[in-house]
Structure formats: structure tokens, C-alpha cells
Amino acid sequence: MRVLIVALGTMGDVAPYTGLAARLGEGGHEVAVAAYARFAGMVRATGAEFREVSGDPAAAGGWTQAEDGRQAIRSMRESVLDRGRVILDAARSHRPDALLLSLPAMPGLQVAESLGIPCAGVFLDPLYPTAEYPPTYLPISRSLGPWGNRTAHHLMNGVFSLLLDGATNQLRAGLGLPTLSRREIARQIARTPVLHGISPAALPRPADWPETMEMSGYLWPAVAPGWRPPADLADFLAAGPPPVFVGFGSRSMSGQEAERIAGIVGEALRRTGRRGVLQAGWAGLTGHSDDVVTIGETPHEWLFPRMAAVVHHAGAGTTAAGLRAGVPTVTIPILGSQPFWGGRVAALGAGPAPVPYRKLSVDRLTAAISAAVSRPGYRAAAEAVSGRIAAEDGAGRVLAALDRLAGRAAADDRT
Predict the structure, then answer these.
(1) What is 2-218+393-414's CATH number, 3.40.50.300, 3.40.630.30, 3.40.50.2000, 3.40.50.720?
(2) Domain Erythromycin biosynthesis protein CIII-like C-terminal spans what residues (predicted)?
């Protein structure tokens, strides 16, 4: 089966799909990944074909799964037609038998209908309404209670519908499809199978979800065969006790802001007496101490288990990697779904309460790191979650679902 995975966004939005692409290839499928040009090498290293999507996730205003709510809505409204067109171009180029869509690529649902091929969502964040937790893109980290959670979901869905249904129907018209009402669009989404690349150990599947919605287990980025750590990193790790990792992923910052954050991190590490591994990321953070090493892209699968604790922005993928490693986590949510995932880490007991980025200070970060590395309960809880994650096979669940999707498509063709 020829499969096209459409993965739009920043590094954290795309990397998990590289491991999925490799697994689907091992399962006998011909796989291509449509993504931004900067991810071409990462995709091709898995053996999958690459289909370029125009745009740059590092540019201001680019839509990612990590944007704040208002910016994301504005960007989505402006880009539904563009996303639909680039997905259609990629599909015409690859000629897939099925589409797998990341959350930002959901306009591809209309493309799949126009091409008469099956599709499924493969999301890294949950979106469908539930009474069990609030919308992940609200800047809150705690439940609003069953009534409050469901009401918040319906209010957000109403806003999304008002903003996006018109653009969706414009896309459908361009594809030669009939106009759908708001209710019909909602039913279309509810009927579409969605596999969430999320561990039930981190977020149990809501009991009030429809059968089409699954928690498949985490999806992990592919690691290049024979990868070796840079010599300076290996030497640093060997020269002392386990350090603390600090990184903010694909968050862009001005030079002045990056310098300020690096200063806070350096002073907090000094006060706690801990060595640090600082990931430069797209912000270009740099350590200024013999006890801090600055690194570029490094597989979290290899790095995090060697840490005393991990400090990060609570992106879905980085949160997953921290829980997988079984080490305490300090989260500093910035926007998007990050407050939600920071709240989940705390609820699991795998780290202290989130430190919101806007309130980040030397004192707050020092206290959070100190708690993470000194209280045995955090490590014990993290190790317990890690053990449950290790027993899961998220990519395998997606592969099985894809095979079921292919079987249904074949049966439909026969009838």
C-alpha cells in the first residue's frame, strides 16, 4: 500500500512521524512523508520518500502545533486553502492509496474524499471533546470538572467552526465536493479514525470518546543507525555526576531574550550545584560555564536517561521523551498545549508543578530543579510511568490500524 504521511509544523511536530514512517516501511508499505524542506534529510534517512511542502516553520506566523490559541486560529483560518492545495499536490505526486494526517494537516481530510482514498488522523495532541479534561489548547493545566471540561470543549469547537467552516467549504468547492453544514463537518471528523500518538500511561483514553478515537501509544523519532554523541558531550557526561538537561525545543527567541534565559538557567544550576546540558534549539541558547555544555540536536532517547532531571517547555514530544526516560521533569510551558502537558507531568507525580515561562526566574527555577533532583517520589513516579510506556508499541498500533483501513478500502472496492 502506498501511504502518504502529512506532517506539518516544527521539529517536535515532525520527528515522531519519522519513526512511524520507518515502521510502516518495515511492514511492507511504500511510504512518503510530506513536510517542510528543512526536514528532508531527516525523512530520507528513514528510507521514506520525501515530498516538500512550501513554507518554513521557523518563520513568523507559521502554523505549528505549538502556537498559542489566538495565533493558531488566525493562522489556520488563513491557511486551510493553502494546506489543502499543498496536500493535494503532494498526493498527486505520490499517488497514495491512503493518507495519514497530523493535526495541522486536517484539510487533507477533504483531499482524501476528493481522491476517493481512505485517511486517518495521527495526532500528537488530543482534540476531540471530553468531560475528562479541558481543551489542550487553553492555557490551563488543571481539570475544570466534567461539566466545565465539556462546556469548554463545545465553546472552543463552536469558535473553530465559525472561523474555519467557511474556508473548509471553499476548499471543498475547489476540489469539486459539495458544501457541508456545520453538523455534517462535525460528523465527518467524528467518523474519521484518529490514532493519538500518546501513551495511555500519560493520558488515559477518555471513556466518552467515540470508537474512532484511539490512544495508540507514543510515536518515537527515528534514530540514525550508528549515531554517536559528539566527543565534547560524551567527555562532559563522563567527567562528573549526571547533569540536568535544559531545552526549549523549536521556540524562537530574540538574541536578548535567549541571553536572559541562558543567564537564568546558568544561575539556577550554579545555586543547585548541578552541571547542565543546554540544548541550543532554534533560540540559539548558549551556556557560559565550565559546568554547562551546549548541544545541538541530540536523540532524547539516548540523552535523557543519562540526566538527573530534564527541564523543558512541555511540548508533547519532549514530555513523552522525559517520561520514557524515567527521570524527574521540570516543565516551563510557554504556549499551545504545553500548559496541559506540564499539568499532566505534575498529576502523574513525575515532577513539580509547572513554572510558567512568563513567571520564570532564578528563584523559581532553582526551587523546581532542587525539588526534582532531591525528592525520591518524583523519580519513583517517573520510573513507574516509564515502565508502562516501555510495554507499548504505538507505531505497531498505527500499522495495524492502517492494515484495517486498507482491508475496508479493498472491501468497498469489491462492492
Answers:
(1) 3.40.50.2000
(2) 290-393
C-alpha span between 10 and 146 (Å, rounded): 33
Tell me if domain 2-218+393-414 and domain 231-390 are identical in fold: yes
Kindly report the pTM of this predicted structure: 0.89
Nearest in space to 13 (alpha carbons), one of 35, 45, 44, 41:
35
Distance of alpha carbon 29 from alpha carbon 243, whole angstroms:
41
In degrees, to the nearest 5, what angle opens at C-alpha 295 toward C-alphas 294 and 299? 150
Q: Between 3.40.50.2000, 3.40.50.800, 3.20.20.80, 3.40.50.720, what CATH number should domain 231-390 receive? A: 3.40.50.2000
Q: How far apart are CA 146 and CA 191, in angstroms?
A: 24
Sheet holding 244-247, edge to edge: 292-295, 276-279, 244-247, 309-312, 329-331
CB atoms within 10 A of CB 4: 29
In which residue are the cell numbers 538527573 written? 308
User: Residues 285, 263: contact at Cβ < 8 Å?
Assistant: no
Distance CA 415, CA 409 (A): 10
CA distance to 136, 145, 156, 158, 238, per residue, from 152 (Å)? 10, 10, 6, 10, 49
Which residues, 6+ apart, have CB-to-CB distance to 369 below 8 Å?
244, 268, 269, 272, 274, 309, 311, 330
Bridge partners (DSSP) listed for residue 311:
246, 330
Give the pLDDT confidence of 275-296 residue by residue, as tens digits. 999 988 766 777 778 899 999 8
pLDDT tens figures, 217-275: 999 999 887 889 999 999 999 999 999 999 987 666 667 788 888 899 999 999 999 99
Sequence ranges of the domains in the chain: 2-218+393-414, 231-390
Nearest to 274 by CA among 286, 288, 261, 291: 291
Is residue 379 within 8 Å of 328, Cβ to Cβ?
A: yes
